[in-house]
Amino acid sequence: MALEKCKYKRPLIKISGEALMGEQEYGLDPRMLGHVAGEIRSVHDLGVEICLVIGGGNIFRGVAASARGMDRATADYMGMLATVINALALQDALEQQDVVTRVVTAIEMRAVAEPFIRRRAIRHLEKGRVIVFGAGTGNPYFSTDTAAALRAMEIKADVILKATKVDGIYDADPMVKANATRYEKISYLQVLEQGLKVMDATAISLCMDNRLPIVVFNLRTPGNIKRAITGEPIGSLVTA
């Protein structure tokens, strides 16, 4: 299949830290990393320009730590460092599959990653390198969802693919409520009004203001990233 058949040519894929745990309760599962890297490679081989934003919830959650009394800014910085650990792990998994990758961070740490420079990041994409964005936005009080929306605007992505453990957006938690209804298509405003846990309100508002579509789908189903990029109706689409 050729690039012309792809609906999206420059997607930003948002992967939660929890997705990289596999069946474990903490940390990184090498098999899950290999699965994700294989999925990304299958799309990269089509000529699609891919970048990723990784969460850090499998290692450290700033919000949870601040709820237990830690200073929120400190907790958030620790969470950002956790995302860099995940980014390096994913870089290694991708390079084992012969995909040239760059880790780009919002907090400078030149020994392990490049600092985020917008034009340089775009150049990497044009040269066929996969970019993994780490350290969120570099600011406390902002989630990695917001970082994904911000980076997507900056590098002119044409969609955010939100890879999760469920196959779309539901009106209630499908893990808890068996008869929860899945939305195939929903507007940004409906997501905000109903308080649906797709991405946080800041990220949704940013996407709404810039008319950037969001596709929410199950990462664990093999071939789903490719299906999303070719425009197959999977998961849920958030649009204007």
Can you tell me about this structure?
With 240 residues, the protein is an alpha/beta fold. The protein has a single domain (3-239), classed as Carbamate kinase, CATH 3.40.1160.10. It is 37% helix and 18% strand. The chain has helices spanning 30-44, 62-67, 72-96, 118-126, 144-154, 188-194, 201-209, 224-230; strands at 11-15, 51-54, 101-105, 114-115, 130-134, 159-164, 169-170, 182-183, 185-187, 214-218, 236-239. A 9-stranded mixed β-sheet has the order 4-3-5-2-1-6-10-11-9, with helices on both faces. It has a two-stranded antiparallel ribbon with strand order 7-8.
Note the main attributes of this structure.
8 helices, two-stranded antiparallel sheet, Carbamate kinase, 240 residues, alpha/beta
Summed up, what is this model?
By secondary structure, the protein is α/β, with parallel strands linked by helices.
Helical coverage, percent range: 25-40%
Q: What's the main sheet like?
A: 9 strands, mixed
Count of individual domains: 1
Question: What order do the SSEs take from the amino end to the carboxyl end, as H and E?
Answer: EHEHHEEHEHEEEEHHEHE
Instruction: Determine and state the CATH class.
Output: Alpha Beta
Mean pLDDT, nearest integer?
94
The assigned CATH architecture is: 3-Layer(aba) Sandwich
Classify the secondary structure makeup into a structural class.
Answer: alpha/beta
Number of distinct beta strands: 11
Strands of the largest sheet, in order across it? 4-3-5-2-1-6-10-11-9
User: Please, how many helices?
Assistant: 8
How far is the N terminus from the C terminus? Answer: 29 Å
Uncertain segments of ≥5 residues (pLDDT<50)?
none
Estimate what percentage of residues fall within beta strands.
15-25%
CATH-assigned homologous superfamily: Acetylglutamate kinase-like
Q: Briefly note the CATH topology name.
A: Carbamate kinase
Integer-rounded radius of gyration: 17 Å
User: What general form does the structure show?
Assistant: globular
